[in-house]
Amino acid sequence: MARVKVVITGENDEGKSYVAVNETRVGTSMTLMPPEFELITLWHTDEPPTVPAPIPSQSKPLPTFFPAGDGVRFLIAVHPPESSSAGEMDEAEQAAALAEMEEKAPGLLSHFDPHGSGFHKTSTIDFVVVLDGVLHVELESGEIAELPPGTCFVQNGTNHAWHNYTDKPVTTVAVMIGARRGK
Questions:
Q1: Which residues are bridge partners to 126 per DSSP?
Q2: 148-162 pLDDT, tens per residue?
Q3: Distance (Å, whole) CA 6 – CA 123
Q4: How far apart are CA 152 and CA 130, in angstroms?
Q5: Distances from the Cα of 8 to the Cα of 20, 38, 175, angstroms
Q6: Are 44 and 62 in contact (CB under 8 A)?
Q7: 2: in domain
Q8: Domains held by the chain: number
């Protein structure tokens, strides 16, 4: 499991800055996703930004995986190689895996193409930085962009699919900002 140290500042009752959170967080994996796919939520809110912002509780589950119109998500994702596979599941195992995914990432599956292509479209603007490994993003036009380490990628609310064609995990950090569709 991936682990990351998270430090979040706040203001005390006297208005002085202090370290409100200083902890190690562990990734959450999901059975339906390829083995070793992990998410670590670092920050989340569905309220309009104010500062200092209320510190979100790590123990409180996300209301929805993708943020609402005024919301923000800050997370790390570890994408395993596509050669990884969850294997075949019977109906009961698949139902349990779907329930687990809905519990850990509410609403995530509803944004994906039901035919299993991996394509999904959200009402968010996502700022993604590839920290380690090489990720690919596929677009509806058929274009596939390679995103090597250090690449900064803006996913602008369009339909896309992520791919890891390598034999090593890819680690990304992302900030997802809820948006309203213009078209």
A1: 155, 176
A2: 999 999 999 999 999
A3: 27
A4: 7
A5: 6, 22, 16
A6: yes
A7: no
A8: 1
Do residues 152 and 127 lie in contact, with contact meaning Cβ atoms separated by under 8 Å?
yes
Which pTM does this prediction carry?
0.85
Containing structural domain, residue 86: 26-178
Distance CA 81, CA 83 (A): 5
Say how far apart CA 128 and CA 131 lie, in whole Å.
9
Assess if residue 18 is contained within a domain.
no
Residue 5 within any structural domain of the chain: no
Token pair recorded at residue 142: 């058929």
Three-state SS for 3?
A: strand
Is 70 inside a domain boundary? yes
User: pLDDT tens digits, residue range 108-155?
Assistant: 778 888 877 889 999 999 999 999 999 999 999 999 999 999 999 999
Residue 11: strand, helix, or coil: strand
One-letter amino acid at 9 equals T
Q: What is the largest CA-CA distance in the chain?
A: 57
DSSP 71-125: -EEEEEEEEPPTT-------HHHHHHHHHHHHHHSTTSGGGB-TTS---B--SEE
Q: Domain with 166 in it: what CATH number? A: 2.60.120.10
